[in-house]
Amino acid sequence: MTANLPPPGRALAEIYSDWLSGLRLSVLPEQLRQVASLDLIDAAGLCIAARNEPYMAQIVSGWDSEGPCTALGHARGLDAAGAAVANGIAIHGEDFDDTLEGAPIRVGAMTIPAALAAAQRCGLSGERAFLGVVAGLETVCRLNHIAPGAIHKAGFHPVGVIGALGAAAAAGVTLGLDARQQARAFGLAGSMASGILEYLSEGAWTKRLHPGWAAQSGLRAAILARTEFFAPRTVLDGPHGFFHAFAPTATPDFTHLTHRLGADWYAERIAFKPYACGTMIHPYIDCMIRLAATGITADEISAITCPTGEGLVHRLWEPLAAKHNPPSGYAAKFSMPFCMAVGFFDGDAGLSQFTDARAADPKVLQLASKISYVIDPENEYPRNYSGHIRVETTNGRRIALDQPHMRGGVREPLSEGDIRAKAIANCRHGGWPEDRAAQLIDWAADLSRQPDLSGLAAFAI
């Protein structure tokens, strides 16, 4: 835990907070503004896509504090923390939200709700909220590079733990905290961070909870920091700090938090998902869609072996028997065999492919049962997400297909038109007509020019 520590007397959170407190819209490069705008559009559509799901009804009705803030797609007004929770859960709920290449984590689901709730609650401008969104996105991306993979290895969900710190940055910059207050917000958020991986055992909904809980934790931390509540400035790099607790096997590279601040924007590497399932599965789905395009039938397939990175196995491949027969549509999103099989038959892996009924489809499950993996020590994960299938047919033919990268990432990004179309389709899935969806998307795209966030209330139902 001694690698790349800040100079004596200056804690890492203080150094980073100095930079955050001076962040201005005028210094943001156009590419970063575009990424943040696209993330807002994507997030807005995802909130509406999830609005009729049972878990959202339970969260919105079960939250015990009403208030003036908006959970998109829901009539009940909530307090700021409640809106942050609800919108964070909705964005991530169908596993269709953004990701980060090179050090995988969701980014917008924890940070966008925190910034929006802070601005709406306090009557702040859209420019303040947009700047907060950018700050949150950049903070999550940088923090997740410090000890990539080690938080998962320790049994924690980075979305929940790093997300709380990212949300503290988003809310803190939105609220205009000074450097001292922002450092205290990080110190507070470090003790509010949470989220374990046991959802993997049953496909439980607690995974959906993690980004929303992180959003409200960071928001509460930023609000409390304004009172000068005493919190550790050494939250990141101290002997009992964040990475010591959540990534105990790692030697953290803290330079990622301060390297070329304002010059190298990690958030520009955010990727947008074309499929509503685990990110690292996407290139394998693309391979299966190309396999189906050859005209081969499922009955002609004897076996499919997938060279894969070791880091994918625990979450997406094992236990293999359970992944061959996922217990629900939600669990199916994290089953490599199921996602590949449904992609083969449907040419897609969108929201309609992950219903409970589809997860029990015998035709899909039969093909899934033929899919297995071998660990490829040369696989580039997590630096790059690639897909590889080796097919054996019943007549002895062998077919090899490879997808060198994730579509939607930096090597093959989705266009603004693609993401707007995705958001429209997601709003349609949530029961909204296209004209209403377009109004929400335009509002999200123009957030930085909104005089305040009173317009959010128009999208409550």
UniProtKB/TrEMBL annotation:
Gene3D superfamilies from the UniProt entry: 2-methylcitrate dehydratase PrpD (1.10.4100.10)
Domain MmgE/PrpD C-terminal: 275-440
Pfam family, one: MmgE_PrpD_C
SUPFAM superfamilies named among the record's database cross-references: 2-methylcitrate dehydratase PrpD (SSF103378)
InterPro entries reported in the protein's UniProt record: MmgE/PrpD_sf (IPR036148), MmgE/PrpD_sf_1 (IPR042183), MmgE/PrpD_sf_2 (IPR042188), MmgE_PrpD (IPR005656), MmgE_PrpD_C (IPR045337), MmgE_PrpD_N (IPR045336)
Membership in a protein family: Belongs to the PrpD family.
Protein name (Swiss-Prot/TrEMBL): MmgE/PrpD family protein
